[in-house]
User: Fold this.
Amino acid sequence: MSWFKREKKGISTSTDEKKEAPDGLWNKCPSCKKALHSADLQESKWVCQYCNYHLRVGSKEYFHVLFDNNEFTELDENLTSGDPLHFIDSKPYTDRIIETTKKTGLKDAIRSAYGKIDGEDIVIACMDFNFIGGSMGSVVGEKIARSIDYSLKKKIPFLMISKSGGARMMEAAFSLMQMAKTSAKLALLNQAKIPYISLLTDPTTGGVTASYAMLGDINIAEPGALIGFAGPRVIKETIKKDLPKGFQTSEFVLEHGFLDFIVDRREMKAKLATFLKMMKN
Assistant:
């Protein structure tokens, strides 16, 4: 009658012998909620293998995806924000900068570097949403301007990867001035006939959308990215109407003529390399 009688003891591992899974080993897809192993996720370019959802990633991951052998030289890596307005909300702006730097390991909401994509020289500036919501402050504008200057000097294409909640309120007008500053620099790039590629990722909103993010010689986006100026809730409350299905997704923006095409992140490097070689020849 062993069917109804336990012949062996049950779980007998003592508490001291139990092992915890290391932090960061597993992730969960925000869309389908399935567990994703970090090694598999990196191999798939941080795209869910089950539902193709593009997880939000930062400059470290984009540089890994795009630069050949993840080899690049960072530009102006030590630029940090000042506090021209001595701004204080729930805490002083300077304290917020220090706290966010310690938490993320970033100096500001953007990193820029030069290297090669499939053997083609390029300068890439990539925003990081983890740094105060990827907000556009004076450092973001300055690093974009200096990246463009480097492109002009070396006569190599410039790629801007946008991921931002918009202007940084702690810098007020100093932040808004970056819209004009970066647009003027991009005009110089256009006059020199040097290609500018704008890649819009999730989310790209506010003053970033209203300036450099939409000024590319080609504007491309990742699938399902939120792209817009004001948020959907604000627009709905303003016009007092329900918004169309898929409003402000990259697919909706493409349909209405504001994008050239949408590219899966796993195919991004090959697509960009093709475009760079076409422009070169």
The chain is about 35% helix and 15% strand.
